[in-house]
Design brief:
148 residues, Glutaredoxin, 25% strand, 5-stranded mixed β-sheet, alpha/beta, single chain
């Protein structure tokens, strides 16, 4: 048995320990009993964002977006489809930069949509501009493989 991974619940933000080999078995939260993976991007703000990025042992993919942004709205269904394919290997989240301006500023978001990939609490890749599902998946895969 491998060392358990820390997975933050998308519902109550409790940190759960889940054996890596059980990620695909629809694990539930030990605190609220809800599914740890929903197949949908999780809307995060403030402290919730920090907890998911800093406490999760799986990478976190973030879409920095705004409701008034046309390209953001165009990309939203592609991002949701990518979430269904990437979970449970990654946590897929969205941050509304209009409602959470401090997060956008803290991470230097200058254009939206912008995807950012976090691993072990640190940003490892960033990509501005709208993408379709295939390009999102390819970009994530390239950036999780690390330097060649």
């Amino acid at each position: 048995m491998t060392t358990p991974l820390h997975i933050v619940c998308p519902h109550c933000d409790a940190v759960n320990r889940v054996p890596q080999e059980r990620l695909g078995e629809a694990p539930t939260c030990g605190k609220c009993q809800a599914s740890l993976f929903t197949g949908q991007p999780v809307d995060l703000s403030g402290a919730r964002f920090l907890k998911h990025v800093e406490r999760s042992d799986i990478p976190v993919l973030v879409d920095f977006w705004a409701p008034w942004c046309g390209p953001c709205r165009t990309m939203a269904p592609f991002y949701a489809q990518a979430a269904r394919q990437l979970e449970p290997r990654l946590r897929v989240v969205k941050v509304d930069t209009e409602a959470n301006q401090e997060l956008g500023a803290r991470h230097g978001i200058r254009s939206i949509p912008t995807l950012a990939l976090f691993s072990n609490g640190r940003e490892v890749a960033r990509q501005p501009g709208a993408m379709d599902t295939g390009n999102i998946l390819a970009w994530v895969q390239r950036n999780l493989q690390g330097p060649r």
